[in-house]
Amino acid sequence: MFGSKCNIIKSVLLSSIRNNGTRNVRLFSSDPTSDHIKLGEIKDMKEFMKLKNEKNLEFTNEQWLHILKTRGGIGLPNFIGLNVKDVGDSSVTIELPITKNHLASNGYVHAGSIITLADTACGYACFKKLPKNSIGFTTISIQSNFIGTGKEGDILECTSTLLHAGKTSQVWDAIVTHNNRKLAFFRCTEIILYPQPPKTSQ
């Protein structure tokens, strides 16, 4: 999910107790004021989840939007121009402005561009919904049905919604649209990863 050299948090955790007694948690802030604790770099999803589990952190949808936008700054999502638009309790919406680099030789959007959009929307949503003590996930199945396409200049939008969330797997549905016209339907299954016990010598 995160590149091995990604500065996923080169920032801070706001952990001061406010006047009303609430604890405000803010990740990915670039304003290291006196009431912040510097976290240093978190290089991947495994380290992010370890921190989240150890400190029992919970984030608002707005905070998750910022986290996922920051995540999108590296790797394939950034390379093809994905933009996280909205984060709900059990959904993520991402948009993709179509350029000539997203097209197939026939002049229409390449199926791989649409699959990347949908898979990322499901993956980001799964990341947000990972259960406590898990360290990550991986896609084990994705099914797609195309009923339309797009062209250069279009802005495609994909919303993933939760169908099933268990301790060992999640299933997400996603719909890709352009101007409210449905282009493709997806179902994505993710397997949840947990720390493995240390191997014992025989």
Can you walk through the features of this model?
By secondary structure, the chain is α+β, with helices and mostly antiparallel strands. Helices cover 22% and strands 33% of the residues. It is built from four helices and eight strands; from the N terminus they run E-E-H-H-H-E-E-H-E-E-E-E. It has helices at residues 45-54, 61-71, 75-80, 111-128, and strands at 11-14, 36-40, 83-88, 91-97, 136-146, 155-165, 169-178, 181-193.
Order of helices and strands: EEHHHEEHEEEE
* Shape category: elongated
The order of strands across the largest sheet is: 3-4-6-7-8-5
Distance between the termini: 34 Å
Helix content: 10-25%
* Biggest sheet details: 6 strands, antiparallel
Tally the beta strands: 8
Strand portion = 25-35%
Question: Which stretches are poorly predicted, pLDDT < 50 over at least 5 residues?
Answer: 1-40
As a whole number of angstroms, the C-alpha radius of gyration is 18 Å
In round numbers, the mean pLDDT is 82
Q: Helix/strand/pairing class, anyone?
A: alpha+beta
Note the total helix count. 4
Question: What is the structure about, briefly put?
Answer:
This protein is an alpha+beta fold and 202 residues long.
